[in-house]
Amino acid sequence: MRAARLIAYRQPLELATVPDPEPDPDGVVIRVLACGVCRSDWHAWSGSDPDVALPMTPGHEYCGQVVAVGARVTRWRIGDRVIAPFILACGRCGDCAAGNQTICAEQVVPGFTCDGAFAEMIAVQHADANLTALPDTLAPEVAAALGCRVTTAWQALVGRAQVRPGEWLAVFGGGGVGISTLLLGRALGARVVVIDIDDDKLAYARTLGADAVVNAATGDAPEAVREITGGGAHVGIEALGVEATTVATMRSLRKLGRMVQIGMPAGDHSQMSLPMDVLYSGQLTVYGTRGMPSWRYPSLLNMIAGGHVDLGPLVTRKIALSQASDELAAFDRPAPPGVAVITDFVT
């Protein structure tokens, strides 16, 4: 099969022909229909993720069709169309039994701890515990985002912050996960402010229904958020993983506010200096989040099927496998609005 391989950090991916994968006894092989190019892939490409050992096939945000099934798999058959979360939990440990699949000690993460989906096919471990059926009404390029960006945003809003209708939601970062948070937050009844330093991304957020936008490059973003929201956001989402925006998110909250760290702090940002006086005096709650347990898929898919949220505008670029390197390099600077999804694995 054809795959894009990370051979050296910060270098173009190498397009290669590699052996077709075989399913584990509890796994399947799927033919990839679509795979997003995510900022987390950039962390792997840039060498800032310690879990990555080269060579590696990146790609963790994907959907596809089952083409081979392991002997112990009971839920899936050849021909099924499926969505996979980027954290593949074992399904057997105590954390999985308690519904906390994202902290499974035996988890597998394609594109980081094993080969990922920048390829025509991918082997998916622990299939019965992780996969969800891909609805016929959901386009593959949109469904791919349900492997990471959209599901991470859903878990942050519903599983961590428990955002309520009418609350103010401040989203720091207008990239893929930030825009996903905007769309889902509005569907949940929140009023949303999007903060970024790129005017194109802010204009895009406006077209998608943001109640307000703030350019952090031109003024004091937390002060602007507090003015817009009448005292501060109830919920703040940090969607970049850098110290400046983490601090700004904390400072934008009203007293008793809740913050969720979605952005992955890596490299130079793995250690941060935070305003603990703000946390103390504001009696804030700060959550970390990473991925989404697969049992939350039905609630999200039901919201989509019911017409309460349209994720189509999230995807602004459908690309070929050969263009993935350019999209990864684009994360070195403010990337274009929306997300890129690989849908052509031949050219």
Write the layout of secondary structure elements.
Blueprint: E1 2-5, E2 14-17, E3 28-37, H1 39-46, E4 62-69, E5 81-83, H2 94-97, E6 121-124, H3 127-130, E7 132-133, H4 140-143, H5 149-160, E8 168-172, H6 176-187, E9 191-196, H7 199-207, E10 212-215, H8 221-229, E11 233-238, H9 243-251, E12 253-261, H10 276-282, E13 285-288, H11 297-305, E14 315-320, H12 324-330, E15 339-344
Parallel strand pairs: 8-9, 8-11, 9-10, 11-12, 12-13, 14-15
Antiparallel strand pairs: 1-2, 3-4, 3-6, 3-15, 4-5, 5-7
Helix pairs in contact: 5-6
Give your account of this protein's structure.
It comes from Ruegeria sediminis. This protein is an alpha/beta fold and 347 residues long. It is built from 12 helices and 15 strands. The protein has 2 domains: 200 residues, Quinone Oxidoreductase, Chain A, domain 1; 139 residues, NAD(P)-binding Rossmann-like Domain (Rossmann fold, 3-Layer(aba) Sandwich), CATH 3.40.50. Strands 3, 4, 5, 6, 7, 14 and 15 form a 7-stranded mixed beta sheet that branches. A 6-stranded parallel beta sheet has the order 10-9-8-11-12-13, sandwiched between helices. The mean pLDDT is 96.
What is the CATH architecture assignment of the largest domain? Alpha-Beta Complex
Q: Helical content, roughly? A: 25-40%
Summarize the main sheet. 7 strands, mixed
Give the amount of beta strand, in percent.
15-25%
Please identify the top-level CATH class of the largest domain.
Alpha Beta
Query: What radius of gyration results from the CA coordinates?
Result: 19 Å
In total, the number of domains comes to 2
